[in-house]
Please model this.
Amino acid sequence: MKHRVVLASLAALASLATASAADLYKWTDEKGQVHYTSSSPEAARKPQQIDPANPSNATALPTQAAANGAANAPGVLFILDASGSMKAKIDNREKIVIAKEVMSNLLRDLPATIRVGLEVYGHHTKGDCNDIEVMAPVGQVDKTALIQRVQTIDPKGMTPITQALQVAAEQLKTAEQETTVVLVSDGEETCKGDPCAAVGSLVQQGVKLKVHVVGFDVAKKEQQQLICIAKAGNGKYFTANNAEQLKDALTEVKQEVVKKIETPPKKPEVTISQKVIKVQRPEIGTIEIKNNMTGSVEILDQQTGEKKASFCNGCGSNTQVPPGTYKLKFHNFTIDGIELTGGEKKVVDANTVSGIIEIKNNMTDSVEILDQQTGEKKASFCNGCGSNTQVPPGTYKLKFHNFTIDGIELTGGEKKVVDANTVSGIIEIKNFTDRGSLVQILDQQTSEEKADFCYGCGSNTQVAPGTYKLKYPNFTVENIVVEAGQNVVIE
Model:
């Protein structure tokens, strides 16, 4: 039986999760109502121990001693993308077929001493951002049974990377040894989360994990978020564009985990002695940061660049630092020359030195926010990613997938709303169902390719106003005029 992991279920059992696994019970009262309690009822049927992360599976859990022993061993948790895009093909094979084959072989080859777990998302329903399943929590597993379950995975839905990482963290909070988390994904977050910030927060909270990310057939413009996840999780990012590269990436991760088993760290012999040193604590100050859009802010020494503290929204950050001069490194810009004296509380409002560019009606993919003069990338935006588009005042150009908007003026404290519909139109192509071919959208005069369309690919055909010709495999349609805000349907 498949058990879907719904985050609300974990929250409902949060009070039970504080007890040891061996003290949790599932029992039914005289009226037939099912209860979950941390102690045995006085007049009830013989209770069954339950797993808080999977309460419908009423099988006996291991003893606390056994659970502690397993938690002390290194392990690896695989998170597999089974969103709808995994049905796309590489070398005439669906990506999910390649992933299941490589994953199954890897599970067979892992030494029995390694604790292993598997989490999958997007394989039950379309459009459900809670479609996450822990097929096997991290521990000693029946590999044959797990491989059989892997073969049943059928891609359908969304890419909720942030929630998948949070579900993974729930399993790893009590682990004493570092667990290696391996995310295999073919694209970015599609459920309005910020997985990079989520991983950074988990590391800051002390969850013992290292996050590697394998980008499986990922377009360059979508790699940034996946690279950020790996960097925040102190791991590596692997590019895999075919079956062999996916195998090589996961093999390298396997070797790293095996090495932890073969060469466990030696515990140094420590001679404990007591020494009392009286020091005079310097008077400190506090830097309070307001209107930071997303992500963390590093508080650095102005001269040396040494990190002294960090701030993130809602993290309860400690920003008490000694008197001195600091610079604040935000996600997309830096504020210099923050003078702080002893006992002072310095309030820094990001709105006074930055603005926000809000982008509407972007069809798909990410939009790069570039300095108008230098072309330097300052930020990026993607639909539903929780993007940080807070940048310093200045003039910017917005690089969409198929066109660019120039001369976006931004002042401090301003929120500039840019509607792509005012400077672009959409060419909607119907009745073209050849999966193996493309329709090229070319400039009528120069024949420069501006976009392309393929059946079932989620193609971005949002283009600048102008006159275009559509080059089908066997013929060409000329003089297609597109105006701003217009949706031109080609049948």
Residues 71-262 form a domain with the Rossmann fold fold (CATH 3.40.50.410). The radius of gyration is 27 Å. Residues 27 and 47 are 5 Å apart (CA to CA). The first helix runs from residue 7 to 12.
